[in-house]
Design brief:
147 residues, alpha/beta, Oxidized Rhodanese, domain 1, five-stranded parallel β-sheet, 9 strands, binds 2-acetamido-2-deoxy-beta-D-glucopyranose, STR17/STR18/HARC1-like
């Protein structure tokens, strides 16, 4: 009992630490995301470049940095993700992280918070949910010259 009495506060502490580190990911719906974009948040689209150019959230400040790379069924984590976000944004910048349906953006948000980004919000439902709400999109394809 004495051992448990010693251990228990530590376990509770570790549990709280775990819960609070997970709970830091704030998830918002597309309506709130739209309001925050209008208020000046940067929209960080973590889908692939191919997905992005087909159509994306219409935001004044928008950045596309893929969280995963490759074809849909063989995607691998983009090892430069945090480095690339860090060169494009400051740790204090207000960011909304969005993807296609909200899976990649959640993982990306977890990684960004762990890397010290302070103002990260994960957009639930992703671009699909945004489109379902008839919110403004930009589908103008930018044709890049092949190198
Ligand atoms: C998200 O993270 C979990 C846990 O690390 C992992 O199992 C899963 O494959 C990741 N999914 C994506 C889309 O990155
Ligand atoms: C649409 O998005 C492209 C990048 O994909 C950008 O170059 C262009 O300026 C955007 N158009 C508008 C009207 O925001």
């Amino acid at each position: 009992m004495a051992v448990l009495g010693n251990l228990l506060p530590r376990l509770v502490f570790l549990l709280l630490l775990f819960v609070s580190s997970r709970a830091k990911v704030v998830t918002i719906d597309v309506q709130e995301a739209k309001n925050l974009i209008q208020a000046g948040y940067i929209y960080l689209d973590v889908r692939t470049v191919e997905e992005f150019v087909k159509g994306h959230v219409d935001a004044a400040k928008i950045i596309n940095i893929p969280y995963l790379l490759g074809a849909p069924k063989s995607r691998v984590k983009n090892q430069d993700f945090l480095k690339d976000v860090s060169s494009a944004c400051n740790k204090e910048d207000p960011l909304i992280v969005g993807c296609q349906i909200g899976v990649r953006s959640l993982n990306a948000s977890i990684d960004l918070l762990a890397d010290g980004f302070k103002n990260v919000k994960n957009m639930e439902g992703g671009y699909v949910e945004w489109v379902r709400n008839n919110f403004p999109v930009n589908t103008s394809v930018v044709v890049k010259e092949e190198l």
